[in-house]
Amino acid sequence: MENNLYSKKVMEHFKKPHNYGRIENADGIGEIGNVVCGDLMKLYIKIGKNKKGEEIVGDIKFETFGCVAAISSSSAVTDLVKGKTIKEALEINSRKIAETLGGLPPIKYHCSVLGADAFLEAIYDYFSKNKRPIPKKIQKNHLRLKKEKKELEERYKQWR
């Protein structure tokens, strides 16, 4: 680990993030925040088709306001899912993101979870906009995030 905190891979993604930016007219947008640490992630996806006619993540970009681990996790998730079929991309999880980065300090592992959740929310948004059936895994994740957001809003309503 560089500086006894972050791996070389984390620092590479932080210093030169991949796929940073916004996609105008995105097919799906996933927005995630963590009120405890203050990280905010927004992932934009464009869906395309491969030679077999399967839907793929044709393009993906992110905007993240957060720490080194949050920015690196956002960059890593875009690399992991870009060009993959939706089915393949849905197999990417926080553990895979952290592994790709050469690990994260335990206190920063939640950043990889945010990256995975932001992607699932972008897919949820894409399916919703297109009136498509939403896989149970994505529905379950969306409901969990919605519940957490509601609980946090209730807990911190005096700050709104």
UniProtKB/TrEMBL annotation:
Name a Pfam family for this protein.
NifU_N
Q: Which domain of life is it from?
A: Bacteria
Q: Which residues form the NIF system FeS cluster assembly NifU N-terminal domain?
A: 6-131
- Offer one example of a GO biological process linked to this entry: iron-sulfur cluster assembly
Q: Which residues cross the membrane?
A: none
The record's section on Gene3D superfamilies has:
3.90.1010.10
Molecular-function annotations in GO = iron ion binding; iron-sulfur cluster binding
Q: List, alphabetically, the InterPro entries matched.
A: NIF_FeS_clus_asmbl_NifU_N
Q: What is the recorded name of this protein?
A: Iron-sulfur cluster assembly scaffold protein
Organism field: Candidatus Nealsonbacteria bacterium RIFCSPHIGHO2_01_FULL_38_55
